[in-house]
Amino acid sequence: MLTLQTAFTFFGVALLLGITPGPDNIFVLVQSATYGRRAGMLVVLGLCCGLVVHTTAIALGLAAVFAASETAFVVLKFAGAGYLAYLAWQAFAAPVSDASGAPAPALAPQQLLVRGMVMNLSNPKVVFFFLAFLPQFVDAARGAVALQLAQLGAIFIAATLLTFGAISFFAATLGQRLRGSARAQQWMNRAAGTVFAGLALRLAVAQRA
Q1: Which domain range does residue 75 map to?
Q2: Listed residue (68, 49, 29) closest to 121, CA to CA
Q3: Around 175, how many Cα atoms within 13 Å sit in the side-chain half-sphere?
């Protein structure tokens, strides 16, 4: 079992990581500004579902097996890059709606959840991050390592929900104001497309390091 000190320390570090600009929180920001607060939160839940998978893999030792496979890394990163490139194309091609300030037509809840999960699971860097980060807070003298890793994963997910939820809230509020202008909508679509294209390129050139 984790000590309270370890749990609170890890939670604080996880909160800082959550607000540090990165692919996942930028993804949440863009989706929330474009589709609204509810859609943004569904994407956040999808990302957290991906973190559940990563935590389970770390606890069971499967992540280490994946990390050792160059082929798995390459296949996963290009699958993720291709998906982000597709989202970029969708954003660039998105039509401008009336200037009512309403969000773009929302995707179905399951589509938004899947979008978040795919974004998280198709990034092999998350596996390496969890492999390097979580074990630093584990003390083998305090019991089962797998249980401690699962607890750390749960704490990380809670911190992600808090920080990404806040990002979604404020991004959706800003997006609502910008959607009152057709010109601003065009710029939002272009900005979203550029962000997705940039994330796709970043993932495509990622190295295992």
Answers
A1: 23-204
A2: 49
A3: 26
Amino acid 116 reads G
SS3 90: helix
Residue 105 lies in a domain: yes
Task: For residue range 115-139, list pLDDT tens digits in order.
Answer: 899 888 887 778 888 887 888 888 8
> Is 54 part of any domain?
yes
- Torsion, CA 58, CA 75, CA 83, CA 202, rounded to 10: 80
Tens-place pLDDT, residues 96-116: 655 455 555 567 888 889 989
DSSP assignment string, 112-142: HHHHHHHHHHT-HHHHHHHHHHGGGG--GGG
Cα–Cα distance measured from residue 18 to residue 158, given in angstroms and rounded to the nearest whole number = 10
112 domain-assigned:
yes
Conformational region of residue 21, where left means phi above 0, alpha means psi within -120 to 50, and beta covers everything else: beta
The percent helix, strand, coil of the chain (3-state, each to 5) is 80, 0, 20
Looking up tokens 């980060």 gives 133
Closest CA to 152 of 132, 141, 137: 137
